[in-house]
Amino acid sequence: MFQILRKSAGNLCALRVQLIGASSSGQCRALTQQQQQVIELPEVRPPRAVWIENLDTVEERKLGIQELSNEVFGATPRIDIVHQNVEWQRKYRYVSFAHAKTRNEVRGGGRKPWPQKGLGKARHGSIRSPLWRGGGIAHGPRSPTTHFYMLPFFNRVLGLVSTLSIKLAQDDLHIVDSLDIPTDDPQFLRDLVQERAWGPSVLFVDSSDLMPRNITAGTESIDHVNLMPVYGLNVYSMLKHNTLVLTREAAEEIEAKLSEQLHRNDARSLMTKFKQ
């Protein structure tokens, strides 16, 4: 009788384990299906679209639409990195010429002012010691002192991306078909800037440093309108000018170069400490 009861209890336990396993597998399958339904693909933002303007007339005319990459012209601005770029550009070309003379460079003081012993005075070997009035300066500035340092590579890249995104978001970035203007008269550029409300200072950027003659001659006598090739574009110059005007080729070249730098695979070697 005991063996029969033991056998039936074992069958009941086996049946319970099967039911629990079946229910747990069913719950896992249901949870997996729910997770698959919850997971959604990230939203893909459309590229930024800007008007292509003309420069051959003072009145603005739309010539088409150009699409700009979001990762270059639509990134989240990093104000801290922009500030780092501005400080780096201000300091790497600054050289301090403050110079203080040491006791060896000050005139006079060649002999001992009084004997070492016998007069009850403190011991001195020269009246040009830093302890004396008119003597040398200890630990003073020595010229020339450079303030040069190198900002990390990707901080420079992100500085350009952030500044371009800020300019576009503030409607201070414009795309033109070319820099060809009909005359070299500076008044034509003044009227054009005033008509289009581009602000007191404008920076024109082209893909090449060989720019059309008329705009080169026209901007020569206007201090607040400047020309720059793509390879010289920097954060300080973009922030210094109110409006940034890019040609179509310049915008495409900037987008291609910055996209390449943002996706390069040798980042670790580029972030090593700069050695002068």
TrEMBL record:
It comes from the Eukaryota. SUPFAM superfamilies: Ribosomal protein L4. GO terms for cellular component: mitochondrial inner membrane; ribonucleoprotein complex; ribosome. Pfam families: Ribosomal_L4. Residues 105-125 are annotated as: Disordered. Belongs to the universal ribosomal protein uL4 family. This is Large ribosomal subunit protein uL4m.
